[in-house]
Amino acid sequence: MIAELATSVSAPRTADLAETLSFIQLDVTAENEPAEWAMRQYARLSGLPFWCVTYGDEGPQIEAASRDGLALIPNIQASVFREADGPRVVALESGLTFYSLPLPPRHGKSSIALGWVRLRPDRRPDDFVLAAVAAGWTKRRVDEWLREQPYASPDLVQRLLDSTWAQVNAETRERQLRDELVNVGEEIEQTYEEIALLHSLTGNLELTRSPDEVAEICLSRVRELTTAEGAAIWMEDHLGNFRLLTDGDLPLDERGLARLCQRCDRRDWSRPFVKNRLAGTALEREIPNLRNFVLCSIGDPGQQFGWLIHCNSPQEFGSVQASLLQSIARILGTHMRNRELFQQNEDLVMSFVRSMVSTIDAKDTYTRGHSERSRLGCKVPQRRTGATGERDRGHSTFWAAARHRKGRCR
After folding, report:
1. Would residue 233 count as lying in a domain?
2. Is the pTM of this model over 0.90?
């Protein structure tokens, strides 16, 4: 049978074909490389057979096939197919029509989807006969395989490839738009969560709330938005005492945070300090488990109340996370500054009240000490009624006890 196939090709023609064609027998692959996925998509849309061909230093290599069969590679200039940015059709005198479509690179090598068809069903191209002989096919197998293969003129192949290329580009664009829509939806959801957090935070900025209470509101909810593994707020009160509030897995303790803040002390704190990719740096050697972080100053550069840090995000920290943390830090700083001003104002009022009480006691020796005794007497019903507010416990009581004697000051 092999002799019968081979004798149909003349000797000069056989030598010529050996110089112009290479061939390989390849089974359908099940790999899921992007280039091979695109090749199978071309075959599905056009109905034509394709092979994934890569070009490297060793020449063209057939990596995968859309169906079983003989893959032929025309030994013409490789740039004819490699440099084409769309469908390419080349008709040979032997009766074979080769065609190609671009593919994504495969393992760093340029690749194309290459295929061939016969011009007419009654022709058995010499190129194919030689390839079948080399592959050990019998005449029966050749005839059966050829009956299943498509045939078309070069013009028809060109129209098929143009239609396939246009449809693939349309589907690719549709996927891109769908992905963009998903990303926009996620960004809108993220923005909504940030706005809701800021709204909730600003709604809890009563002066009666301590900075610790406001900080606790921020810690867990903000960490969910930044996807950080650990978060901390390190604050200093008006007495100079520091408090460290943490959430999640923080890779450094209070002393480590102090060292980190000291290293960054000379920075411009009008903007957050973002540091990614700490692997191999001196800071990573000093704090081994710290991979990335965002550090923000609580308060103005001239009056700092503490620091806000989020660290070890699975992705790199970006401008969105940094801006959110900067807003949170400024809100906390404003709240602490307002409480400080409120405390100063309250201390001023209490100083005035004490001065007034001292003036009344100096003028009226008969009722001297009555204001203090009235304040102490008010504590009894306070304790019985369960009044626990800071102002009810002291300042408001003292103010009422002193004020009821203001008529004595004349």
Report:
1. yes
2. no
Please count the residues of the chain: 410
Work out how many domains the chain is built from and give that number: 3
Q: Which residues of 283-306 are buried (b: 16+ CB within 10 A; e: fewer)?
A: eeeebeebbbbbbbbbbeeeebbb
**Beta strand ranges found along 12-109 (DSSP E):** 21-26, 51-56, 59-65, 69-74, 88-91, 96-102
Residue 168 resides in a domain: yes
Of 113, 146, 145, which is closest to residue 40 (Cα–Cα)?
Answer: 113
CA distance 263 to 378: 53
Per-residue pLDDT in tens (0 to 9) along the chain, 410 residues = 333 343 344 444 434 443 344 444 444 444 568 899 999 999 999 999 999 999 888 888 888 888 877 778 877 776 788 888 899 999 888 788 899 999 999 888 889 999 988 888 877 777 777 778 877 888 888 888 888 888 889 999 999 999 999 999 999 899 999 999 999 998 888 888 888 888 888 887 788 788 888 888 878 788 888 889 999 998 877 667 788 888 989 888 888 888 888 887 777 788 889 989 888 888 888 888 889 999 998 887 677 888 899 999 998 998 888 888 998 888 888 888 888 888 888 888 778 777 777 777 677 666 666 666 666 666 666 666 665 544 444 456 555 655 555 555 55
56 within some domain? yes
**Environment class of residue 351 by beta-carbon count within 10 Å: exposed (0-12), middle (13-18) or buried (19+)?**
exposed
Question: What CA–CA distance (Å, rounded) separates 283 from 306?
Answer: 21
Query: Considering the domain boundaries, does residue 347 fall inside one?
Result: no
Considering the domain architecture, whether residues 319 and 404 belong to the same structural domain is answered as: no
Provide the 3-class DSSP secondary structure of residue 137.
coil
Domain that holds residue 35: 2-172
DSSP state of 408: G
21's tokens: 């064609």
Query: Does one domain contain both 336 and 369?
Result: no
369 & 333 share domain:
no
**Is the same domain home to 21 and 131?**
yes
Provide the H-helix boundaries in 264-369: 282-286, 319-363
Q: Per the structure block, which two tokens stand in for 101?
A: 């479509």
